[in-house]
């Protein structure tokens, strides 16, 4: 089984990325042949500054390794080190109906937020389909916001197979982890860089813990019972606390007597401890100059060998060359 997923290097890694995609991806690296990459081509649709892009790629690579990506198990690479993916993307574009892309939520949301779209943003899902299809992927661990892009990917694969021959491209499935399908941010909305409600994994202790204090709650006074439904604290706590710890916090909500400030502090402390091992690994990685680049180069060589074969197969099938 081949597992594949990617992240955009648009900023520092946040809890939504970690629990929605990275944690399941890290578990899956032990269950099949994993291909994980940094989607730098995709980020060009939003970042037009070479220095910033390179720094973001470097940081994300360090962070992914720190979180437990094992380069002995998973193939880890930069998307742009396999330029064949852009050729496949072009070919896929030619079977992709415009209305299918016009319908994509992430595109529509960006327009609704006042962004003037470049055509890269519009065809973003086609490049994502190429990422997935070029490695004959079976399974793609993602957060819920990518579900529609996976549907587009399957549609494109089916269209290609209909036009050029059954079995030309493997039709993949997504894997969405129910309890972390949509990780909420400090305001209770989906955690996202574009909403400014993120909590970054590798911040210093003080600002990290402070972010949890910012979580929005209702104004139930300390002695009163507090609602469990609609809590912006409990869903995050459930991601890191033991079932007993969660039960205790829920019980305290029902009984009253504990204020939101105390719950937030407990959550912040728990999260901080949860990432202790990752922070230690990160410090170790940062002390080894050249290590990350070596990992990415070795990953790119392996990924590229697979990608070249797929592109050759597709070129032949469609009548190029
Ligand atoms: P990106 O960089 O926006 O996000 C990376 C991963 O994190 C997940 N995620 C979340 N999950 C749950 N709750 C949240 N609040 C949350 N925020 C982010 C995303 O669902 C995603 O899985 N298009 C992709 C990158 C990509 C890709 C691919 C992914 C490019 N090619 C091929 C899979 C396969 C993206 O922008 O992810």
Automatic annotation (TrEMBL):
Subcellular location as annotated: Cytoplasm
Pfam families: tRNA-synt_1b (PF00579)
Motif ('HIGH' region): 9-17
Motif ('KMSKS' region): 190-194
UniProt entry tagged with the keyword Nucleotide-binding: yes
SUPFAM superfamilies (UniProt xref): Nucleotidylyl transferase
Keywords per UniProt: Aminoacyl-tRNA synthetase, ATP-binding, Cytoplasm, Ligase, Nucleotide-binding, Protein biosynthesis
Catalytic activity: tRNA(Trp) + L-tryptophan + ATP = L-tryptophyl-tRNA(Trp) + AMP + diphosphate + H(+)
Binding positions (ATP): 8-10, 16-17, 143-145, 183, 190-194
One biological process term in Gene Ontology: tryptophanyl-tRNA aminoacylation
PROSITE patterns per the UniProt record, alphabetical: AA_TRNA_LIGASE_I (PS00178)
InterPro entries assigned: aa-tRNA-synth_I_CS, aa-tRNA-synth_Ic, Rossmann-like_a/b/a_fold, Trp-tRNA-ligase, Trp-tRNA-ligase_bac-type, Trp-tRNA_synthetase
Highest taxon listed in the record's lineage: Bacteria
Official protein name in the record: Tryptophan--tRNA ligase
Organism of derivation: Roseimicrobium gellanilyticum
